Structures are given as structure tokens and as C-alpha cells.
């Protein structure tokens, strides 16, 4: 049985669709219900997993339907507002008119849960981070609060300096025994003072069997690629040993990925081990039949001091004239790379789309044999290479040309190519190819990097504050300064020369304990803001509502602030909830200033419950209500009828 990658993927999709309720037709979109909530106006929100949101009135009529640009993962009612967590870590808030009143970046990863507790809203992200918010923040964000918390930033924000060694080497199918002695010479060129090492290899253990294994693993068991086969594990361990031999055994392996002959290992020093988390890997194959691992990209994603890093290693299409194919290899990686828990790429139109993995990363370092060539006659290119005339070679470099056109490595930077082309050499020499093919010298092997610049994103959760609040902060979550970019021209074991870069990073880190203490104080400052006296009049009319055939009462808001209330069915003698005995319409809602709300109270007429009802002398109804802007709390109780009573509790948000 022969199955291509696309055929297998299509079959898996059909099985998933059949078991998950999705329509089987080609191009059909999922329509499963993700969440339902009741807002303060007693309207029902229905959120679907295809980003569709429907709003229904209490009578079941549809009020509004729209499609969200970003998928909602969780949603809850917060007073007169509705808060939602999104897959990109943002938090979105709608007001009572169903207009968006706030949207900000609350987390680095998807928000998976959101809940309201009194005046606090807590959000949980996929990386385990929990954040607490005041109901006014940032809906009623004011300059006094913003300036207060950010003026304290020097107490909890600091910059950590980290040095990175990033290297790439195409070993030309050499076995480990033939390369082992060269590995320490490669890494010692820049790893002695490094805190992080990123080592990428290409053409390791190549052959038909390895390519076939890669196709099977990519199709059926991608997780096996993370650990790598036995040979890959030996290579990863050997690279770790080379690092330790040059720097006194202070390194740890934190992430690895294999795709056939492409290997990527990420290592950190002892002092950074506890700062590293959220390690995950992925790959995109682009080789034989479009799925073989002899060409493609592997990636390791991780966080350091809660800043997101993505390290990649690639081997793109070969041959002098295959520029378009190399561009396609880059585009495929940028578009298709996705972690095991990552979100799918959305089709937003246009020829170039990056996956959320690349878009949301603070810093990317991309190494590999990208195979871009120099467009110059062989003899002329050799002469320029031997004579150190690198500028003339750079003017003919395919990669630099395609980057300037926006066709590859969009937004990436590279150091100046002030070293000889790294391909192709006669084996065990530093002489460019003298075979019949006479391959033109080229910088096939490169190290590129890209830092995300967003000066508004001072800290997660503080939204887009504007320039006056970010003065003195670095413009990027991670700053990157290239210190060295070179090759190891004296290493002759392969037909490629190893390339490496040394970078100095500045990581903006946060003392979370200090930040929490200051945030609590800021929230207390918001709580202490009291409205003018005499405008909190909330009253209860014990008379049954007009035209009501059952009991009931009316809540009246005579104050100048919104009042949100909820009614619980509770037997005060046992504390047991009795939802089947008491019928309430409505059981909660929002009262704007100078308005009232009628509450109808009845008893369930189900015959099976009548015996239990007759045993009750009274039924207690507890009414909880919140008045915005008030800190004090009081409690009251009132009996309405001999058969039903309610308690009133006064809370504040």
C-alpha cells in the first residue's frame, strides 16, 4: 500500500470530521459550540469554533451575528461587560451596547480560561501563566493609574544580558568518526563566552533509508522526530560534548529536532537552565516527493525569562538556477511551521503569510544551508574569493537580491559577508571545486536573525499605552546586537565550511513577585475611588409585579451607577441549592441608573416534586447585587411572603 503525505492527511481529516460533527464536504467549516453565556441584559451569547458569534434575546430571537477576526477560546460576563480570551493571547471586552470597548495583549500564548471573582477577573494562558485584572482595567484606564504603575517599573523590570553562539555546517554525509575532531574547533570559535548555543547540521547520515524513514515519521508520528533516531542522538550528544570540552562541562541540552539528515540542537549554560521553559519542536519537510526530509526546516521553540525564542535550521533546494524553489522552501517553512499545541494559519490573502509561531516570537535565529548561489562566472568568482573581493561577490548574491525583493527571509537581518564563500571545496582542502562541474563559490551557509519590535508592548497586559509611558524602556522585548559573523576556513573535513555568529542579547525580564505587589496596590487604589454620597439607592418593592400570576418583587436602582444582580435559589437551613423547585424570570441582569427590574417567582408544577414542596415552610431567595465604584459591603434580609422569602446582600466590585 503506497500513500502520499497529502492522501494520509486527507484521510485523517475525514475521520476527524466524521467524529467531531464537522461537515464532510470539501472546504466545509466547523460549527461546534465552544461556549454559551448569559450577559447582564439576559441575552445569550453563543460562540462557535469557527469564530462565529451569535447573540440571542431572552425570547430566542437572534439579535446579532458576526465573525471574529481572531478565534475566541473562552468567554465570561463581567458586570455589564463581556470579556473574551483569544487564541493569540489577547483579551477583548464588549460593553452593554455590544461595541468593543477594549482589546489588548494579555498573554504571550492563547488564553484558555477566564473567570470573574467580584471586582477581579483572572485569565489563564496555555503556558500556565495566570493574570489578574481589575474590572476597570483597561476599560476605564486613566493616566493617573497608568503613570503610577509604570513609574514603579524600575522596581520590577530589568534587562538581562545573554550571549548566543549560532552555527551551521553541512557535513556532506561524513560519518561521525570523520567529523568528531572538527566539532570542538568549530564551537570554540565563539562558544567560550556564550550562554546559549544553537548548532545546526545538514546532510547527516543521508541515504534512501533515512529519507524513507523521514516520510513515514512526518506522516504518522511527528513526535518521533523530536527525539531523533539513535544516530541523531549520538550526534546531539557529541555536540554537547564538544561544548563541554571547550567550556568546562557547564552546558545542558534543552531542545533537539531531527528531519532525516537535518539536525538542530539547542544548549544552555547552568545558570540559564531554570530560566528556560515551554520547549517544543516542529518541522516542515520539502524533499523527495515534497515530504522527504533530505530538504526542509526544523525548529525549536522555547522561552527564556518568559520571552519567546524560535531557533530554526534549514536545508533548501540545490542547484544554481533553483532560486524560485529555494524561495518556496522558505515560504513553506514560514507558513506551515506549527507547534503541537499551536493554532492553524489563517488565510488572510496575499502571497506571503507567516504562521502565528513566527509572528508571535520575540526573537528568531535561522541557520542552515540555504543554497543561494552567486551569479558570476566560475573563474571570476574563484578569483574574487581567493583575493578577498567580497563586495563584488555580494552584488551577485542570490539571497541578498531575493531578500531585497521581499521573496525570502522577510524582515531578517544578516551580518556583513566579510569571509570567503563557504561552498564548494574539494574534500579536505580549502580549494574551490576543481571537478568537471566546477560549482561556483557561494555563501550557501548563513545565519540570520529577526527581533520583534513593538515599543507599545511594555509588559504583557498593559496594552498600547503610547510613547509617554514607554520612555526609557527598550523598544524591543529582546534586543539583538551582532558581535561576530564568520566561518571556520581552516576546517576541511567537508565540502562546506562551518559558519557561526555571536550575538549579544538584552532580555527584558520582570520580577513577578514585585510586579504582583504593585499591581495589588494599584487595584486597591481603584477600589478606593468612591462615587458621590447619596447616589447608591437600591430598593426593593415587595409587591408582585403587575400581570404576574405568581409571586415576585421588583429591584429599583435609584442611584447614579449601574447595578448588576443575580438571584440564587437557596434553602437557608441546609445551604442546598434547589433549582428544580423555584422558577425565576429573570435570575439576574443589569439595571442602569434610574431603572427597575421585575422578578417573577414561581414554584415548579412538576407532580414528581410536589411532595417535596409541601414539606417546605418557606423558600429562601438570595439576591446578590453589585454597585460599581463602592468599596463598603453590607448585608440585609427581607421576608416577602409566608411561602417565599429572600435575602439581600450588598457587595461591591
Explain the overall architecture.
The structure is a single chain. By secondary structure, the protein is α+β, with helices and mostly antiparallel strands. Helix content is 21%, strand content 34%. The protein has 15 helices and 31 strands. Strands 14-15-13-12-22-21 form a six-stranded mixed β-sheet. Strands 16-17-18-19-20 form a five-stranded mixed β-sheet. A five-stranded mixed β-sheet has the order 27-25-29-31-30, with no helix packed on it. β10 and β11 form a beta hairpin. The chain is elongated. The relative contact order is 0.10.
Helical fraction equals: 10-25%
Which shape, going by the Cα principal axes? elongated
Termini Cα gap:
64 Å
SS strand fraction? 25-35%
The number of distinct helices, counting runs of at least 4 residues, comes to: 15
| Average of the residue pLDDT scores | 79
Enumerate the strands of the largest sheet in spatial order, edge to edge or round the barrel. Answer: 14-15-13-12-22-21
Largest sheet, in brief, is: 6 strands, mixed
Q: How many beta-strand segments?
A: 31
Name the structural class. Answer: alpha+beta
Low-confidence stretches: 1-30, 463-469, 572-577, 629-653
Rg from Cα: 32 Å
